[in-house]
Design a protein that fits this description.
The chain is mainly alpha-helical. 40% of the residues lie in helices and 9% in strands. It contains two helices and two strands; from the N terminus they run ααββ. Strands 1-2 form a two-stranded parallel sheet. The protein is elongated, with a radius of gyration of 14 Å. It starts with a helix and ends with a strand.
Length: 67
């Protein structure tokens, strides 16, 4: 049986490959999240758990991403 860490790494790598191959596949999903947040320049968004930092590309200018 695989450990949690092994499963996490395997799933994370598969997800990252998919996001690199089809970078726009989740555009609407990420945009809906960001559109619902009243973000202002200088505010910080904590993307927990982050992996590839995909959400950062959808944040408005001046908003700081932390992963």
């Amino acid at each position: 049986m695989k450990s949690y860490e092994e499963i996490f790494v395997q799933r994370g790598e598969a997800y990252d490959r998919a996001m690199r191959r089809y970078p726009g596949a989740r555009d609407q999903e990420f945009a809906q999240i960001v559109d619902r947040l009243p973000l202002k320049p200088g505010e910080v968004v904590g993307d927990i758990p982050c992996g590839g930092g995909y959400l950062a590309h959808y944040l408005p200018g001046g908003v700081v991403w932390r992963g």
